[in-house]
What does this fold into?
Amino acid sequence: MDKDKEIEQLKSEVARLRLEMQQAAKEKDEYLQNVAHQIVAPLNNLKWSIESLEDPTVPFGRKQVLLRSIYSQATILVHLIKNFALMSALETEHSLESFRERTTVLDPKLLMINLSNDFQPQARDRNISVVVDDESFDKCEGKRSIVGIKNLVDQVLSNILANAAKYANEGTRIVSYLRLDGEFAVVSISSRGLPIDEEDKGSIFKRGFRGKGAKERLPAGTGFGLFIAQKIMEIHQGRIEVRTDGDMSTFDVWLPRPKMGGTGR
It folds into this structure.
C-alpha cells in the first residue's frame, strides 16, 4: 500500500513538473516574441533616420534632431539586449561569486549622471527632463560609495529609468536622489506618470507581470525589466521598494555600502 502511495505521489510530482515546464516554455516563447517586436521598432527608426541623414536636402537643424533620435534608439536597443542576455544568467546564478565580473567600489552619483545622460534624448522626445539631485548626493560625499558589479548595478538603475521614461507624463521630470540608511545607500528615482495600482504593487517585480494600465498605454512590453532589477539586487544583498502617491511613483534601490574597514570613498 505504501508503494502504491509512493507511486501516486511520484506521478503527481511528474505531472506538476510537466505543467511547470510547459508554462516556462510558453513564457519563454512570449518573451522572445515581445523582445523581437520591441527590437524591430528601434531598428526601423534607426534605418529611417540614417537614410534621412544621407539626404542632402535635409536641413542641418533637422539632422541634429535625427542624430539625437539615433542615440535614443541605440540606447533602447542596448538596454533590451542587455536584459535579454541577463535573463538566462539570473535563472542559474545565485551569488555574486558566480559571475565573471568582480565587485568594485562605485560612486552612485557618477552612475546616475551617466545613465541620465543616456536616457535624456529618449525623454526629450516627450518633453521630459532627467535630473540628478546633486545636493542630495553631495550631502553624502565621502560616505556614498556602494559595492557591486558595475554592469549589473547599471542595469538595475537603467531598467527603472527606462520605465520612467516610458510611463512619465509629458512635460514632467524624472529625478534621482540619494540618502544613506545604515549599511545601505538608497538611490531613489521619482516621476509623475501612469499610476501604479495598490493591488499591482506586490506583483510588479514578478516575472512577466504588466499592469492593466501599462498594457493599455504601451501594448508591447516584456514585463521583465523590474523582475531582472529585483533579482540583481537580491544577489547583491539589496532590494528595490516602490512608493506611490497618486501619479507620483518612487523606486528606492537599496545598494550595499562597503563594510567597515573595507575600501571606500
